UniProtKB/TrEMBL annotation, chain A:
The keyword RNA-binding does not apply. Keywords: Centromere, Chromosome, Cytoplasm, Kinetochore, Nucleus. Component of the CENPA-NAC (nucleosome-associated) complex, a complex that plays a central role in assembly of kinetochore proteins, mitotic progression and chromosome segregation. The CENPA-NAC complex recruits the CENPA-CAD (nucleosome distal) complex and may be involved in incorporation of newly synthesized CENPA into centromeres. It holds the Pfam family CENP-M. PANTHER family: CENTROMERE PROTEIN M (PTHR34436:SF1). It is found in: Chromosome, Centromere, Kinetochore; Cytoplasm; Nucleus. It comes from the Eukaryota. Its main location: nucleus. The keyword Ribonucleoprotein does not apply. InterPro entries: Centromere_Cenp-M (IPR020987), P-loop_NTPase (IPR027417). This is Centromere protein M.
TrEMBL record, chain B:
The gene is LOC140596630. It holds the Pfam family CENP-N. Belongs to the CENP-N/CHL4 family. This is Centromere protein N isoform X4. The keyword Ribosomal protein does not apply.
Length: 180, 318
């Protein structure tokens, strides 16, 4: 099946899997390394993909969280994400998808406006995080956030579900268009 | 004399330019002074060649012909001193105040420093132009000339002094002479180490395994490998020559999919300048596809730079 669905497989025991989708492979790899350094009670699995759809012949675990990584310096990376979004089932967008936008700090190199990504995230009712993946300290912070988010999306945090988290994030950072 | 040997003689002598004929025949030392004196060197080349072959016919063997061939190759038909004095004279005849200095360098190269003056001013020593001329090649490298009006004169001096009949400015610029040389003399694609080609590949894949945690899975591994392969095919394993810029001047008509697009209706072409700059442009281009910033293969407009020896392009509609 070329469309990703959130609940089409059984979960692995104590396993949480995140899928990072983005064109800048080296940075995704570094982010993955940073995430694995975090202390985490769950067993983490990180899948890195350039774009969707994923190759279909592979046996992969259930994906708990998808993060789309956009580089604001590259229209190509945004285009890649927009095309990949089409291969994700609508039910994923109930708290199991997020956007990472990098490069906002260097305004002069940005060929995509921050609002473009914010609007895209709002269209898909998902949170967007602006970050700098190139510097180690900032990367570690993002990795920490992602690990916590991943644990919630995998259902490993009692009392908090992905949908809870989504509404918490939405109210404080990204008000839904209806609320404006 | 055998017919084939006679033919060989004829062709070898035909190859010699008339201006060098006497020098080479003397260096060959086969025909005596007296014999050479009896030859009419003022006649047309074909007849001269016939006379010479007749002279050689009786005693010459194929070995003598081979010797003549070697003499032709060996004599440095280019005289460095003559070039220098000719070059200096041309400039000084045209401009009263100009100072020219020479320095011989390795590989038949001469460095020339030119300080330009005007009719009323002494040469300005603080804005010289440097030229490096490789006498065994038809190439010269110059630094940028602050007084653009002197550029045609410089070109003319180089052309005449080096016995060529015209000079063409290449669209290739860089701050690194070695890189320019590597591109122009086509020496950039040599790997200096020879090794067993199978072992490095094995080492490479081992490295990848060690660094990769088994908890990280690359979904598009096959695509990654394809990109690496295409990049290697285009750019090779060697380090690229160093350029700082690539500039593309476009003068093309606007092409649009929409009907009635205002820009597409313009009769004049649009002018547009695109400049790529980098401390090391070719290495940066090489890393574009593996970094995920561009698709592989890259546009041939980018990859043809060292091959064509150009980094300034003008693109027009056909």
């Amino acid at each position: 099946m070329s469309v990703l669905r959130p609940l089409d497989k059984q979960p692995g025991l104590n396993t949480a899997t995140i899928l990072l989708v983005g064109t800048e492979d080296a940075l995704l790899q570094q982010l993955a390394d940073a995430m694995l350094k975090e202390d985490c009670a769950s067993e983490l699995k990180i899948h890195l993909a350039r774009s969707l759809p994923l190759p279909s012949d592979v046996n992969r675990p259930r994906i708990d969280l998808i993060m789309f990584v956009v580089n604001l310096h590259s229209k190509y990376s945004l285009q890649n994400v927009e095309e990949s979004l089409r291969h994700v089932d609508a039910t994923f967008f109930l708290g199991k998808v997020g956007f990472l936008a990098m490069g906002a700090g260097q305004e002069s190199h940005c060929s995509i406006h921050r609002n473009t990504v914010t609007k895209l995230a709002n269209t898909y009712r998902s949170p967007v995080f602006f970050c700098d993946l190139e510097r180690e300290g900032f990367r570690a912070t993002v990795a920490q956030r992602l690990v916590r988010m991943l644990q919630i999306c995998a259902g490993h945090v009692p009392g908090v579900s992905a949908l809870n988290l989504l509404s918490l994030l939405r109210n404080s950072e990204n008000p839904a268009p209806e609320d404006l | 004399m055998d017919e084939t040997v006679a033919e060989f003689f004829k062709r070898t002598i035909l190859k010699i330019p008339m201006t060098e004929m006497m020098t080479i025949l003397k260096a060959w030392d086969f025909l005596s002074e007296k014999q050479l004196q009896n030859v009419n060197f003022q006649q047309r080349k074909e007849s001269l060649v016939q006379d010479l072959v007749l002279l050689c016919e009786k005693r010459a063997s194929v070995h003598d012909a081979a010797l003549l061939d070697i003499v032709c190759e060996d004599i440095d038909l280019f005289d460095m001193e003559q070039f220098k004095s000719s070059f200096k004279k041309i400039l000084q005849r045209a401009l009263k105040n100009v100072m020219v200095s020479f320095r011989d360098a390795e590989e038949n190269a001469v460095w020339i420093r030119i300080a330009w003056g005007t009719q009323y001013r002494k040469p300005n020593q603080y804005k010289p132009v440097y030229v490096v001329y490789y006498s065994q090649t038809p190439y010269a490298f110059t630094s940028s000339c602050p007084l653009r009006s002197n550029i045609p004169l410089l070109g003319q001096a180089l052309t005449v002094a080096s016995n060529h009949h015209k000079i063409v400015k290449m669209d290739l610029r860089s701050r690194y002479l070695d890189s320019l040389k590597a591109i122009v003399f086509k020496q950039y694609n040599q790997t200096f180490e020879t090794y067993n080609s199978t072992t490095p590949l094995q080492e490479k894949s081992l490295e990848l395994d060690i660094h990769m945690d088994s908890r990280i899975i690359h979904e598009n591994r096959i695509e990654k490998e394809r990109v690496q392969r295409v990049t290697q095919e285009t750019f090779g394993d060697y380090s690229q020559p160093r350029l700082e810029f690539a500039q593309y001047k476009l003068e093309t008509k606007f092409k649009s999919d929409f009907n009635g697009d205002i820009l597409a209706e313009r009769k004049e072409p649009l002018r547009c300048l695109i400049k790529f700059s980098s401390p090391h442009l070719l290495e940066a281009l090489k890393s574009l596809a593996p970094a995920g910033i561009a698709d592989a293969p890259l546009s041939p407009l980018l990859t043809c730079i060292p091959n064509k020896g150009m980094n300034y392009f003008k693109i027009k509609d056909k």
